[in-house]
Amino acid sequence: MTLVARIMLGGAPCLIGDALLSSPDLANPYVTGAECELPLVGEINSLLAAKKRPFRTKLCQKLHVFEGRLAVGWSANDHRQAERALRVLREVAKKPNVTGADVQEELSAIDPDQIKDLSLVGNLLQAVNGDEIRCTTFGCNIIAESVAGFGEVQAAGSGARTFIGMLQRSGPLPSTANDVSAVLPVLGTLLNYELSTAQSIEERWGGAFETVGFSQRTGRLEKLDNVLHTFWMWRDDGTIDFQPRFYLARYFDDLLVLRSAEYETHGSPAHGRNPIKRLKSNKVRLVPSLLKEVMDGDLVKIGHVDFSYDYICCHVWFRGAQGRVTPRAAMVVGGRRGGLYDIDLSVAENGSLHLNVPSDTVRNVYEEAKQTAATGFDVGLNCADSAFN
């Protein structure tokens, strides 16, 4: 199963999707014995087998953008049903002045028995007038619920109810920007949930997360690209620690590239210099779509993937009670590069790591975490207003 959803942010519809594709048929050669490496988690199928879970997983993109004006997310147990609909939508998006009626007509022309278990959520960009974004929405086999600050949330898949519950508990985002970057706190919260609880995997969704929204820069529907995730821990003594791991999501030729790394330090600070940092894990994972497979040689074609980013998410976890596995709470702050939370990070092709976390960034994250800690850990989706200006 999966999670795909449509929410409203700043007056524009935004699609969110996960990348996990599960199969309950353990005799299916498509999944049996296959490795599925999740960022910062590891190879998940061996863990599922060890826990005797009756399913295995792989990764696949669930969100698609055609011609910069038609975006769709899908959920289905049988991926062939989704592929039929996607090929139809790809062609209809090429029509000049395509309308919502065109989209519905083409979908209705598909044999209903061939897509009977398919769920879709979609947006068709119609017009842009200043800050006003006009989209036609479409969908099938979805659940819908009005959530304050997010409009009528439409979702499908095994994670749909959990996701809607997250939004209801979180409340509206402070930003009203209609750019795709405004969804960063939502993506960060989903990732926090997966890494801290592992419940999304148990519910057969997660793995990685994507989003499609309106780009103010291009005037088109686009996937949010080049996002770096960093991790922090708020200590009980009122200090904050930068955690030794990173996760980058970017795109190359319609493939989703997941780059994750963890590092260790050697020695102790001396004479004002930081300890030597060395990578202890350094992984790149390519995630295909139903319309774009991973081919031999793709990694060579992509070449070295550094951690240069356009957007940054800072995940701050608050320690739980002694012996507790999951944190008491988590918060997310973030924004575009050049904002409040920049870091200087690069990994050379030989694996050498350069990292500098400016004192301004530490102070900004600390102040946000301090305010959250003072609320008694009633934590929702957090972002600094200025980060999205």
- Give the terminus-to-terminus CA distance: 36 Å
- Biggest beta sheet summary: 6 strands, antiparallel
Main β-sheet, spatial strand arrangement: 11-12-1-2-13-14
The number of helical segments is 8
Uncertain regions spanning at least 5 consecutive residues: 378-389
The chain-level structural class is alpha+beta
Proportion in helices = 10-25%
Mean pLDDT: 86
Query: What sequence of helices (H) and strands (E) makes up the elements?
Result: EEEEEHEEEHHEEEEHHHEEEEEEHEEEEH
Work out the number of β strands: 22
Indicate the overall shape: globular
Rg over CA atoms:
21 Å
Write structural notes for this entry:
The relative contact order is 0.14. The chain has eight helices and 22 strands. The longest helix has 15 residues, at 359-373. The model is unreliable at 378-389 (pLDDT under 50). A hairpin with a 6-residue loop joins strand 13 (209-214) and strand 14. Helix 2 packs across helix 3. With 389 residues, it is an alpha+beta fold. The chain is globular and about 65 Å long. Helix content is 20%, strand content 37%. It starts with a strand and ends in a 16-residue tail after the last helix. It folds into two domains: 4-19 and 60-176, no CATH class; 227-388, no CATH class. It has a six-stranded antiparallel β-sheet, covered by helices on one side.
